[in-house]
Amino acid sequence: MLSEEYRYKILKRLGSQPETSQRELARDLGISLGKVNFCLNALIEKGLIKVNNFQANPNKRGYIYLLTPKGIEEKTLITMLFLKSKVREYESLSHEIEDLRSEVERLRLSDNY
To answer: What is the rounded distance in angstroms from the CA atom of residue 20 to the CA atom of residue 12?
Structure first.
């Protein structure tokens, strides 16, 4: 299954570096090459990216992954959703950190008596 996070990261990367190889994506995302291939095929099937072969590439294995207009729209939507998710995560962690600081302060005060 293609998670929102991987879809976001793949679309972001291909939007800025369309010549990125599947192997580079796998390494940078920390996932298997097979999963990257599956994800890219799912994005192609949904019409979010299209693939072109580098005709001038001597090894004929170089591809360029281009975001379609639908892909650009999806990337924008996913970016907003990802940002909202990360802000909620940040706020939750901020509250947890504040609670821990308060607890440490209470423990320090109780140790002084």
So the answer is: 11
**DSSP characters over 54-113:** -TT-TTS--EEEEE-HHHHHHHHHHHHHHHHHHHHHHHHHHHHHHHHHHHHHHHHHHHT-
Summarised one tens digit per residue, pLDDT across range 34-61 is 999 999 999 999 999 999 886 665 655 6
The domain ranges of the chain are: 4-85
The pTM of the full predicted model, rounded to 2 decimals, is 0.71
For residue 77, give the nearest of 46, 106, 113, 34 by alpha carbon. Answer: 46
Rounded Cα gap, residues 10 and 20, in angstroms = 10
Rounded CA-CA distance 63/85 in Å is 32
Architecture of domain 4-85: Orthogonal Bundle (1.10)
Q: Coil, strand, or helix at residue 52?
A: strand
